[in-house]
Amino acid sequence: MNNPVIKTIPRITMVMAGDEEGGLEKHVVELSNGLAERGYAVSVIAHAKYQQRLSKDIQFLAVDLSKSRRNPLILWQLYQAIKKSQPDVLHVQANKAVSMVAPLLKWLNIPSVATLHNKKNKLKAFLQFDRIITVSQQVAAQFEQQGDVRVVLNGVAIDTLSSGFAKPEKSSQTIQALAIGRLVTAKGFDILIDAWQGINATLKIVGDGPDYQALAQQIQELGLQNKIELLGHRADIPALLAQSDVFIISSRNEGGPYTLAEALLTKTPVLSTNVGMVAEVLPQALICEADNVTALHELLTTYLSDMPTLNSLTQPVYQFTQDHLSFNAMLDNTIAVYQELGLSVLKQGTPQ
């Protein structure tokens, strides 16, 4: 751990409990780095594995919160780390970390924010925080009293996606579709594969996860080997999006999702199940019921056979995406929540 902080500018302490690789971890790392770049003092309390992905300007306090949320020793280490970071605002990310920090708030006396990234059954711990951030209106609707709830849509860096990735000239008339996500039940790739039967298009699914073998077997059993390809983990997502005619979200359950913004920022039209912030971004005509093979198949059939209509319906969405789903928009909206709790707002680029 670093030495205690000498506070000269507003400090934000971020807490994350996971040790996985997904949207939550991406969000916390990028948000923390973005706040540091804006000139805020930032501390991150998380598993040691994430330190190398954070800016050197960030104070990192390694605490492994991936184990039991009721472990007294881990809770004591968490409390000590929060105190050591001396935050002006404490920002706790996702359900597990929120449940661990909530009992400590009465001893901390620090303005606090909790972010809920997805639908959850147990929300009592979130109500103990001064502000709640949700990543969509759908997630926010779980709270009966919404006076302290703020919706901040997930955003991605425009320059890393759109620069230099113009849509290439197609060498084939076959529609090329892309789906991205961790290969887990929540992402609904099994539904997507079922729904792809009879679809005159090719599909590439990018991602790793525990369902890889089951999905590969499903593709084989349905005789879709020539239409669906599992690509595994890939680092060239912008290039893959640029090569695709359409992006598919088939999730059963979702918070953001980040991939919606990534696709639209590369001007790739999207067809999606009704999850997360999708209904706040896409026209209703491009959305179907989640966890419903028939509904997804009908959506795919309708628009993959009529790409001009799909492109026409999506055109107005691209400007909305630039304005509201960029990384800077997400950062501005998050800082605005901190400002409600008394944090001083710095000018962008203020040196630390």
Task: Based on the model shown, name its key terms.
single chain, 352 residues, alpha/beta, Rossmann fold, seven-stranded parallel β-sheet, six-stranded parallel β-sheet, 13 strands
Could you explain the architecture of this structure?
The protein is of the alpha/beta class and 352 residues long. It has two domains: 11-155 and 326-340, Rossmann fold (3-Layer(aba) Sandwich); 158-324, 3-Layer(aba) Sandwich (Rossmann fold). It contains 13 helices and 13 strands. The strands form two sheets. It has a seven-stranded parallel sheet with strand order 3-2-1-4-5-6-7, sandwiched between helices. The protein has a six-stranded parallel sheet with strand order 10-9-8-11-12-13, sandwiched between helices. Strand 9 (201-206), helix 8 and strand 10 (228-232) form a beta-alpha-beta unit. The longest helix is centred in the last third of the chain and has 18 residues, at 307-324. It is elongated and about 60 Å long. The model has no long low-confidence stretch (mean pLDDT 90).
Summarize the structure.
This protein is an alpha/beta fold. The protein has helices at residues 23-37, 72-85, 94-101, 105-108, 137-140, 158-162, 189-195, 212-221, 237-242, 258-265, 293-304, 307-324, 327-340; strands at residues 11-16, 41-46, 59-62, 89-93, 112-116, 131-134, 149-151, 175-180, 201-206, 228-232, 246-249, 270-273, 287-288.
